[in-house]
Design goal:
5 helices, 17% strand
Length: 171
């Protein structure tokens, strides 16, 4: 029995156990082929990454078999067959170019938040809540766009002196 407080820890433990079991099966199946595939797990999500399309497909199939063997249900609507480009945890991954990217929706959300600041008249103030919302978006996006970290740091500095969510500061 567990409550909401320990739910993430419990999910992570189960997910890590599933990942470990499936990874052992994958390693055994791919041994001697010269290719490798790994599973990345986060709370209740899995991402399979392989050196070759065939290895990735084998790993994906083994992961699904392992989940079925353990009696865990897979949501087919949220399951994507192996592909060269996918979104995992809100971040785009491209195995062709070996790069990460922000999906279009995330870029549009960030542009809207920053556009709100840019559209304000000089000298207008914004609330701590607005700044914190922007900091949240910038922090998340800075995983992909490292250059945003300095802007994020400046907004954190500006909002740190404000005590209430409705307090205002000039940006």
């Amino acid at each position: 029995c567990f409550g909401a407080r320990s739910a993430c820890r419990t999910f992570s433990a189960v997910t890590e156990a599933v990942r470990w079991i499936a990874q052992r099966r994958i390693d055994a199946r791919l041994q001697g082929t010269g290719t490798r595939a790994v599973i990345v797990a986060y709370i209740d999500g899995f991402c399979v990454v392989g050196q070759a399309a065939a290895a990735t497909q084998v790993a994906f199939d083994i992961l699904l078999e392992t989940l079925a063997d353990l009696g865990l249900v897979v949501n087919d609507d949220k399951t994507t067959e192996p592909t060269a480009e996918a979104i995992f945890l809100g971040t785009g991954l491209c195995t062709t170019t070996m790069s990460i990217f922000l999906p279009d929706k995330k870029v549009a959300d960030l542009e809207a938040k920053l556009g709100y600041l840019a559209s304000r008249a000089p000298g207008d103030k914004v609330t701590r809540a607005v700044l914190q919302s922007i900091v949240g978006k910038l922090t998340w996006c800075s995983v992909v766009l490292v250059q945003l970290r300095s802007l994020c740091s400046e907004f954190i500095r500006l909002s740190s002196g404000l005590l209430c969510p409705h307090s205002r500061v000039r940006v």
